[in-house]
């Protein structure tokens, strides 16, 4: 995590100052790169659950990512692989943009890193979570603590990347910085390999898409059938199908029938008693409920995309804001603009332990939930708080530009700290809540893939950022005026208006989330087993599989 953070968070400085791409194009390159990292997490999740398992996926793609870091450091070190030196701010019109083999080497290195990192991300979380047995009430309770500890470790890695590694990149060159990232990645691989014989590795289950496809094919084939009023008439027994996801854990064994998406229940209708039907024409209730869960989480997933679009601004335009401000802290020491992103992680190093040791126990007394508040509530708090990050960013950017143009003053770089602090707090709620929510809603054989969906949200958020930047420039450009974000000089741009637009979108997105989260229902089979949930344990009894369970599942 530390290695990819050091590259991603300061990449805009490298592609703008060293490779001489225009500012808006550089911002889009960074958001596309980071978006691709997170999108490829779906590939990592699929390969892990279907064929390789979490450990071997991490092992293989860890070396892919390492090769990308090495290639980046080689390009940054050799002048022949970069355009001639030039100041993009003062003499940008005369700077030569990287093209041909120089651009090819850059993109090859970046997307080797993207492929390796993307396939690693979901498996880091899922391999750790797989060490806990969800059917054990004591270990299930510790799972929420694990997610908080994992996020704490992530914050610590980000903090080191955004301070020490960015400082190295700034003072000793990007080649040394990329080299340190490669060394950190190599150390991580050594740590992974050293625990090979200690991990609890869950075997791959075969293609996770086949049983999903079977449900839709069977439901469409039997679309003219009428669902029985008595759900006990639906096919419950597990089919002996190689590609079907086995439900071997207590949480996944015989998923209870729910009333949502009833059209999918037609896949469970037996047309001929006593005759064996193809798995593409007859599915089990558990198999159908798995698909219902996947469909149900999509709106929750979609509501986090705008949240990650805001994150994209903090890694691109907010860094460029910092380059136009006074970076002096004390005499002789300047703070690298990219290191501003370390501010929320400094805060979170202290806040995350307090959340786990103070807030969770107190909230647990009132709610009875192991995690204090539900993952959906945690996500909602983060989405609401994120809006104020863009409000702060817009207000500070307007003050910065007025001070630079009219008062001829340069504001301190710490003026933009609030937007990072507010977003850091919101991320603690939303990011951890989303990972916990997806993992707890997943079944054996799908943990890595559903965890990857959380990272896919980052991907779509960064891609949406690129689309919004291009769209805003197109709409706001006229024959006499350039667009809000068309110049390489932020003093000529209208970045504050862009921030206000994102704040409005974030608020609308939060209201949309309130609707979908209030409608979401859990399958009672996936609720925790323990003294406080004995009725859910009873519901798993096959004798009451067909009864209406809606009163237990609404959130």
Quick recap of the structure?
The protein is mainly α and 555 residues long. The chain has helices at 2-17, 23-39, 41-52, 54-77, 88-91, 101-129, 137-172, 174-194, 209-221, 285-302, 305-314, 317-323, 343-367, 375-405, 417-440, 447-476, 495-519, 534-539, 550-553; strands at residues 328-330, 333-334.
Q: What labels describe this entry?
A:
about 65% helix; about 0% strand; about 550 residues; disordered C terminus; mainly alpha
How confident overall, as mean pLDDT?
Answer: 79
SSE topology string: HHHHHHHHHHHHEEHHHHHHH
Low-pLDDT regions: 239-252, 531-555
Percent strand equals under 5%
Query: What sort of overall outline do the alpha carbons produce when their principal axes are compared?
Result: globular
The spatial strand order of the largest sheet comes to 1-2
Structural category:
mainly alpha
Report how far the terminal alpha carbons are from each other: 34 Å
Helix content: 55-70%
Largest sheet: 2 strands, antiparallel
Count of alpha and pi helical runs = 19
Roughly how many Å is the radius of gyration? Answer: 25 Å
Number of strands: 2
